[in-house]
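Fold this complex.
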Amino acid sequence: MIWNNESETLTDRKKQSLQGELLKNLVNRMYKSIPFYRKKLGAVGMKPGDVSQVEDITKLPFTTKDDLRDNYPFGMFAVSMEDVVEIHTSSGTTGKPIIGGYTKGDIDVWSEVMARCLSASGTTQNDVVQNAYGYGLFTGGLGVHYGARRIGATVIPISGGNTKRQVMILQDFNSSILTCTPSYSLYLAEVGEQIGVDFSKLPLKAGNFGAEPWSNNMRKEIERKLGLLALDIYGLTEIIGPGVGNECEYKCGIHICDDHFYPEIIDPETTRVLPHGEIGELVITTLTREATPLLRYRTRDITKLIPGKCQCGRTSMRMERIMGRTDDMLIIRGVNVFPSQIEEVLVNIEGVEPHYQIVINRVGTLDELEVHVEMNERLISDEIKVLETVERKIQSDIESVLGIKVDVKLVEPKTLIRSEGKAKRVIDKRQL
Amino acid sequence: MKIKQVSIFLENRAGRILEITEVLGQNKINIRALSLADTSDFGILRMIVDDATRTMNVLKDKGFIVKESWVVAVEVPDKPGGLASVLRILGKKDINVEYMYAFFEKPQDKALLIFRFEDPDEAVRILQENGIEVSGKQKLGLG
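Structure:
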């Protein structure tokens, strides 16, 4: 279902002209009100008048997470505090949190884009939205709340946690839309199963799941266990919170609200803009944000853009589900490799579990990639040829995804490393 | 008449076989036959032990990846051409030998070989029909 038919089905020409206008206006506002951007634009010799169309964006400087930290708390605000009606932050587990300020207009945009995201999963005013994203400084809870209110749906602001109560309300209040992290939805299903809930009998029809990376296999599991349509929602505190984009029922990429958030993909090493379809780092410009606008913000999320009209009718730019973080990226023989690509291959091979380690060696001048895959009880055979076939299958599947040759080795399980929590996925033995 | 074999996945790493034999020794499990198959990356240690179920459990507890499969202990005439006579019988019936290795002890005038077939029951039937003796677990004293 399309919430805003006019904005979500713009022709390319109309969209580019709108984006150009908004960009021009944005750079103007930033130059005038944020000393940080005035300096940054000046450093590359740009003045507001130099931007006349959206293509000019490639001449503008990037913004990084470090820039936001350096200007903590309010150095990136473009408006005075009397115009700020709300403030949210990231969890800040790795230092000072990231701050997002919202004017009345920003909350209006947030409600609008979240209404689009919830409509994409079929939410109408007749629905009951059980919102299990955390309410508070975290953007998840209130973002969904504003969108559901805009649509006129009934919101249950249950927030996260208290799973038994969640299950009870899911049954008693006829919740039809569930919003939470994908892993929490599976936990809900598990707790529900334990107390004998038959999810297929509940009126649940769809869910907007996000705020953490997940896979298509996880989607299948969620859909099977909860009996609903599971769609991926994308967003980040820096940009607005949830609402940057959402999948539609065709599940062919996340529709970005690109009349508010302008997406680009760059090579994280060279910062060169990559053509549509190539994998790289997602960069977003907040075309309409008033309180804390960002120019070419490097999200560190890895994905690719998918242009073209979707079967659902939307013409918005789409992006592939997040494939990893730039921090995880490896460069092997000039090819960008993400551990998540290898993981995706492994989970798709019968009997293979995604317990693996990547070892990079430099032999002479060439990088060599070894993928160690753990043996398990479903895979083991007493026959060498069976195991060699498994090795070759993994090898050729990885090679066809990465486009480079790899050496696959079956190894014994590393019980020790896993019991310490997060497994160390990459061992780089290159002496550069 | 088939017997249980325990296979263990091993990385090619010093000391792994020692660890296995030590675990079995501490648990008073006796190895009656074994064979190691390996590639440049990994190996599979296959064993006939006097208590396969307990062996599986103690090795699993130590974090080893193990598998049980059925094999056949064939009594082969201990004279020139003895093995050929057995293989000829199997070959005629299109029974493929996946791999084979020798048992440590042997009955009088016979060698005892462990055979892995795709279909062990069928192989046992054909061997017995042709007068080749197959040792079951009682005869071999396996638990």
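The mean pLDDT of chain B is 93.
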